[in-house]
Write a structure and sequence with these properties.
Keywords: Carbohydrate metabolism, Hydrolase, Metal-binding
Oligomer: single chain
Cofactor: a divalent metal cation
Shape: globular
Strand content: 25-35%
EC number: 3.5.1.25
GO molecular function: metal ion binding; N-acetylglucosamine-6-phosphate deacetylase activity
InterPro entries: Amidohydro-rel, GlcNAc_6-P_deAcase, Metal-dep_hydrolase_composite, Metal_Hydrolase
CATH architecture of the largest domain: Alpha-Beta Barrel
């Protein structure tokens, strides 16, 4: 036996019992075995090491699900990721810590359309890193804009919008300054030269998302052929569905998607951004592509009043947040666990489907489902204990409890 194998074998094995585990798309009455931050195959453990668990934990009938992954979150709890401070990391850490109680074990800090100087100051300060007791893991940055449509800019400031000039990809590089920690870029596919940009980003392993756009269906399909795999907050900031040209929304049922390719789409399931009927239509049309995102802004977790989103002032009125003095929606204040519960209620879907929309599907769009988003053997032990109503009881990252509800005792 190699030394590293031996040292792993010496580490304690945890057995979570009396629980329902989400595995292979269904809740199964099984135990979950964990060692060294990974999910173990108990049969292999028994045959290879003839070893029982060192610690047994009674989960009191809880559901165990993979940790939630939020691929679009602009900030929260008073922090705005699109503000260029000297300590961006501190703000991201604060949000990462606070979202543990909402079941988020990893996330993509999202920057809205900003001046070039903001990207150049903020992006070098954000590092991809594992989660732990300090907070949820950072999977990479989601850059939403500035290469988006003026007509569908939503809460993005018009004076910061950009188009692709002759050296399209160089233009993008010059704007952002650095792509090292970037994992998603949202752009409008109808822009001239967007195809070459999509190809270049995809080549670098960056997920291209279509959004804030007036693209018709054939422009959207062409973007997918060049490598785009995601749609940013479906229905919001795009042309409304029209039966003769359904626009980006038509990708959900398009027959022009290359074989073996899947299109995913984000939805803000907060009861405000998308009518429950629209949520049901999307889910029934393409259930395997649905990804729940919070699109949360600074005001998440704060009292109503005035807050910021990048360059804009936002007014929060109850659960609605608008650009100050307008009725333009500007991101959400809903937490991920709330979105999961609302999605389940609005669509009548199964518990499994609701949980996978916040875990498996985001992992798939980021191509990290071999280590996150499932409870398969040998994946990272990032998981949640939930009650039957999908309220988070405890959050685990790499097999370690990083948050628990005060009333929950194991």
């Amino acid at each position: 036996m190699m030394l590293s194998e031996k040292s792993t074998a010496d580490l304690p094995v945890f057995q979570f019992t009396n629980c329902w585990i989400l595995r292979n798309h269904e809740l199964q009455r099984e135990d979950l075995w964990v060692r060294d931050g990974r999910i173990l195959n108990p049969e292999k453990l028994f045959f290879d090491e003839k070893k029982p668990a060192d610690v047994r934990l009674d989960c009191k009938g809880s559901i165990i699900a993979p940790g939630f992954i939020d691929v679009q979150i602009n900030g929260g709890f008073g922090v705005d990721f699109s503000v260029a401070t000297d300590d961006v990391g501190a703000g991201i850490s604060l949000v990462g810590q606070k979202i543990l109680s909402h079941g988020v074990t990893s996330f993509c800090p999202t920057l809205v359309t900003s001046p070039q100087s903001v990207y150049h100051k903020v992006l070098p300060q954000i590092q991809v890193k594992n989660g732990g007791p300090h907070g949820a893991g950072i999977l990479g940055v989601h850059l939403e804009g500035p290469f988006i449509s003026k007509e569908k800019r939503g809460a993005h400031p018009e004076h910061c919008l950009r188009t692709f000039e002759k050296g399209a990809f160089q233009e993008l590089l010059a704007t952002y300054g650095c792509l090292d920690s970037v994992c998603i870029v949202t752009l409008a596919p109808e822009m001239k030269r967007s195809s070459e940009v999509i190809q270049e980003l995809t080549k670098r392993g960056i997920c291209v998302s279509l959004g804030h756009s007036v693209a018709n269906l054939s422009q959207a399909e062409e973007a997918v052929r060049h490598g785009a795999t995601f749609i940013t907050h479906l229905f919001n900031a795009m042309l409304p569905f029209h039966h003769r040209d359904p626009g980006i929304v038509g990708l959900l049922t398009s027959d022009q998607i290359p074989p073996g390719r899947q299109v995913f789409y984000g939805m803000i399931s907060d009861g405000i951004h998308t009518n429950p009927a629209a949520l049901r239509i999307a889910h029934r049309a393409h259930p395997k592509g649905l990804i729940l995102v919070t699109d949360a802004i600074t005001a998440m977790g704060l009292a109503p009043g005035r807050h910021t989103l990048g360059q804009q002032v936002i007014e929060m009125d109850g659960l609605n947040s608008y650009i100050a003095g307008t009725k333009t929606l500007s991101g959400s204040v809903a937490t991920m666990d709330t979105c999961v519960r609302h999605f389940r209620e609005a669509t009548g879907c199964s518990v499994e489907t609701a949980l996978e929309a916040a875990s498996l599907h985001p992992a798939q769009v980021l191509k990290i489902e071999d280590r996150k988003g499932t409870l398969d053997y040998d994946t990272d032990a990032d998981f949640l204990l939930l009650d039957d109503h999908l309220h988070v009881q405890a959050t685990y990252i790499a097999g370690q409890q990083v948050w628990r509800h005060n009333s929950f005792v194991m």
